[in-house]
Design a protein that fits this description.
The structure holds 2 protein chains of 2 kinds. By secondary structure, chain A is of the alpha/beta class. Chain A contains 12 helices and 16 strands. In chain A, the strands form 3 sheets. In chain A, strands 1, 2, 5, 6, 7, 8, 9, 10, 11, 13, 15 and 16 form a 12-stranded mixed sheet that branches. Chain A has a two-stranded antiparallel ribbon with strand order 3-4. The longest helix of chain A is centred in the N-terminal third of the chain and has 16 residues. Helices cover about 35% and strands about 20% of the residues of chain B. Chain B has a single domain, classed as Thiolase/Chalcone synthase (Peroxisomal Thiolase, Chain A, domain 1, 3-Layer(aba) Sandwich). The chains are: A alpha/beta, B alpha/beta. Chains A and B meet through helix 4, helix 5, helix 6, strand 6 and helix 7 of A and helix 4, helix 5, helix 6, strand 6 and helix 7 of B.
Chain lengths: ~400, ~425
């Protein structure tokens, strides 16, 4: 079967713009969680992107039509195309697709226009609103910017959706689409968006950035939100070889499940998502060099994740890391950013650390990586769970990949 | 990819008709249900029209708790899904739960609550730092529309892959297409798939006012939506849901299920052109149609009925007519093409699923719905648009197309029976 290879990466993250800066910060465990300016809410910190200049990173005419989330997406797609050394003019536009994930839409733009509607009147709503805040905007804008006319998609499954998008892109490559730009970006830090997350009850209200987001720690008390994400170029491995493109690795396996209703008495399904992904990749648990955890930092969710990992890999059976402790949970952007870190960890043969977590005990069976550790093997497992019971597991592999 | 996909259950919540039977009767009567908006005072808006559902959730089996907690879009989806499940007579999922998935399309998710929550937290003041303490405890579920997929999964007992597909106005077709892929690749045996949207709120109406996409024929609500007509002047906003039970054909046949037809082919493309504009030549929609027919292994001449996107905007109807001529060639002039949006409006992410349901009902009932309000086609729009009156005719193969903001173009082919399993 066709191998879906990653040949380009574009990153916009709180700890770095571009894949090189991001990876360097991830490996150092450099924290990038800081105070939310002017926030009087019981959420004090977020992973915020610094140094992103819309006027420099995208065409001026797109700036007033787009939410910050979409500005990130357009830049990340540009950088992914550059990173893949792609000349898209060599492709039939109908052979190139775009599949992204979103969770919220362009809601900072949306908050402004809702204010115009409610406080000034309907005639003050922007002509761009109809397509700036809906969930499909990033796929649309990326396809237009690069004249990509192939299969498209937009998936929403809360934090799990980012991995679902990569898996859908892989399906399209396997079905014969020559190239797919895929990933997810989110930017849920405007007051309206923070209010929604506060209502969801999973945000940390801590007043110290170093203890605000502590998954697998006894002190876990919710997460810090973040903004950003990644776009990846996915293509058939043979084609990548033919055009002389360097390959980061392949999307080797995927599994997705949904949890039953909490009151159903039935067991949750993260374990099965992991097993499906491994089977899809043709791998055994022992082949997995590292797990990038979902890391909810809600005690019962941490325990459930620890249990699923122990059931598949055995107690202390696999190194587990959560670099998102340095940048927060980024919803649709979180899974793709972890996939980028996993690919680079495999390439550089080093596991990046989980930061801040020190008094971990929710489950001692978890072998949490707290300082960079040498990596052996060629496959990594990335997990993401979404509110509502969505479980996604993705395996990336560097089997038979020549060093870049 | 050899597994085939059967449609074994249908549920519809549409303007003028809650329930599949009532919906089909409405279509056959050719009766538009567009009207002046009643759910809020539309006096300040350019377009004051919509096709609204007369929907009383408690009468359709939702609990008081669900009525209070869930946005209208989720209520539509649940009511349609329940009807589809009953219609399919599929056994309760039980131990097979992990072989059941959910794929639900929505363009704008919980818009009504998103607006309502803004009003609550802003409390009549234009502060950027809104008062978070005034928000509903369910605001997060409104914020991220995958809550709709979660509610459906719980309703039907699905523990396989579940997701929301949100590709604007092609969401409904695309969600059903995604569900088919899950069955074809073997991930699941059953997918509850469809689309739902409840966009009739001031923010949505204001958005479409701002770009003059909707009809302003406020003095004549019933005939406001006139697809392909010389006098058409925009679409009319709608709302509703359709949910299908998709099932691996082999299993559906083995259990003796009533099979409306098979989803024979699906494809989506983009125009790479403009967020709201369309190229006149319709090449990308044509490419989607051709790819869907190729997947179905059917020639263009096999298509007996085309359910059009037919929004009644100037550019859509030209774009679509060109796309059908490119993809179906001479056959485009022979095949009946109709737009049900003339009657029930454009319900964004729901309508694609409602139109797939319409195609399935056409296969089942041997009839095609008309394009209402079409008295004088624009001269260059020269296909058979089935004006005014439904047509009884055998339908073996039906094609539906969709087009939406973001440049998305989708096509799906249904077939009554593609023959014995290989």
């Amino acid at each position: 079967m066709t191998t879906a290879a990653v040949t380009g990466i574009g990153v916009v993250a709180p700890n770095g713009l571009g894949v090189a800066d991001y990876w360097s910060a991830v490996l150092r465990g450099q924290p990038a969680i800081g105070p939310i300016p002017d926030s009087t809410y019981p959420v004090r910190f977020a992973g915020q992107v610094v140094g992103f200049e819309p006027d420099r990173h995208l065409p001026g005419r797109l700036v007033p039509q787009t939410d910050r989330m979409t500005q990130f997406a357009i830049a990340a797609a540009d950088w992914a195309v550059q990173d893949a050394k792609l000349d898209l003019s060599g492709f039939d536009p109908l052979d190139v697709g775009v599949v992204t994930a979103g969770t919220s839409g362009g809601f900072s733009f949306g908050q402004r226009e809702l204010a115009n509607l409610c406080h000034r009147g309907p005639e003050h709503v922007s002509a761009y609103m109809s397509f700036a805040w809906f969930y499909a905007v990033n796929s649309g804008q990326i396809s237009i910017r690069h004249d990509l006319r192939g299969p498209t998609g937009v998936l929403v499954a809360d934090q799990a959706g980012g991995l679902d998008a990569l898996a859908q892109a892989r399906r399209k490559v396997r079905q014969g689409t020559r190239l797919v730009l895929t990933g997810g970006l989110d930017c849920p830090l405007c007051p309206y968006s923070l209010t929604a997350q506060l209502a969801g009850g999973r945000l940390s209200d801590r007043d110290d950035p170093a203890t605000a987001y502590l998954p697998f720690d006894v002190r876990a008390g919710g997460h810090v939100p973040g903004e950003g994400g990644a776009i990846l170029v996915l293509e058939d491995r043979a084609q990548a070889g033919a055009r002389g493109a360097a390959v980061y690795g392949e999307i080797a396996g995927y599994g997705a499940t949904t949890d039953p209703h909490p009151d159903s008495g039935r067991p949750p399904n993260l374990r099965r998502a992991i097993e499906l992904a491994l089977a899809d990749a043709g791998l055994h648990p022992a082949d997995v060099a590292v797990v990038f955890a979902d890391a909810a930092a809600v005690p019962e969710l941490d325990q459930a994740e620890a249990r699923a990992l122990a059931e598949v890999f055995g107690p202390h059976g696999v190194p587990v890391t959560a670099p998102k402790t340095a940048i927060g949970r980024i919803y649709a952007g979180g899974g793709p950013l972890d996939v980028v870190a996993a690919l680079l960890a495999l390439r550089e043969r080093v596991i990046p650390p989980t930061v801040n977590v020190a008094r971990r005990t929710v489950d001692r069976a978890v072998d949490l990586v707290e300082a960079p550790r040498p990596l052996t093997g060629s496959a990594a497992l990335v997990l993401a769970r979404g509110v509502g019971g969505f479980n996604s597991a993705l395996v990336v592999s560097t089997r038979d990949i020549v060093d870049r | 990819m050899s597994r085939r996909v059967a449609i074994t259950g249908i549920g519809v919540v549409a303007p003028g008709a809650v329930g599949t039977k009532q919906f089909w009767e409405l279509l056959m009567a050719g009766r538009p249900v567009t009207r002046t908006i009643t759910s809020f005072d539309p006096g300040r808006f350019r377009s004051q029209l919509a096709a609204e559902c007369d929907f009383y959730p408690e009468q359709h089996g939702l609990s008081p708790e669900q009525c209070a907690r869930l946005d209208r879009v989720t209520q539509f989806a649940l009511v349609a899904a329940r009807e589809a499940m009953l219609d399919s007579r599929i056994a309760s999922t039980g131990e097979a739960a992990h072989r059941v998935g959910v794929s639900i399309g929505t363009a704008v998710g919980c818009t009504q609550q998103l607006e309502q929550q803004y009003r609550a937290v802003s409390d009549h003041h234009e502060h950027w730092w809104v008062d978070h303490s005034r928000a509903s405890p369910f605001f997060y579920d409104y914020f991220v529309p995958s809550s709709i997929a979660a509610e459906l999964a719980w309703l039907v007992g699905a523990e396989g892959p579940s997701t929301v597909v949100s590709t604007g106005c092609t969401s409904g077709i695309d969600a059903i297409g995604y569900g088919c892929e899950l069955i074809r690749e073997g991930s699941v045996d059953v997918v509850v798939a469809g689309g739902s949207d409840a966009p009739i709120a001031p923010i949505t109406v204001a958005c479409f006012d701002a770009i003059k996409a909707t009809s302003s024929r406020n003095d004549d609500p019933e005939t406001a939506c006139r697809p392909f007509d010389r006098t058409r002047n925009g679409f009319v906003l709608g709302e509703g849901a359709a949910v299908l039970v998709l099932e691996r054909l082999e299993l559906a046949r083995a259990r003796g299920a009533r099979i409306y037809g098979e989803v024979a082919g699906f494809a989506s493309r983009s125009n790479g052109y403009h967020m709201t504009g369309l190229r006149a030549d319709g090449r990308e929609m044509a490419a989607a149609v051709t790819a869907a027919l190729d997947e179905a292994r059917l020639p263009a001449t096999a298509v007996d009925y085309v359910n059009a996107h037919g929004t009644a905007t100037k550019q859509n109807d030209r774009h679509e007519t060109a796309a059908l001529k490119h993809s179906l060639r001479e056959h485009a002039y022979r095949v009946p093409v109709s737009s049900i949006k003339s009657m029930i409006g454009h319900s964004l992410g729901a309508i694609g699923a409602i139109e797939v349901a319409t195609c399935a009902l056409s296969l089942e009932n041997g009839a095609v719905p008309p394009t209402a309000n079409l008295h004088e086609p624009e001269p260059e729009l020269d296909l058979d648009y089935v004006p005014l009156v439904a047509r009884e005719m055998p339908v073996e193969v039906a094609l539906t197309v969709g087009s939406g903001f973001g440049g998305f173009q989708s096509a799906m082919v249904l077939a009554r029976d593609l023959g014995p399993l290989a």
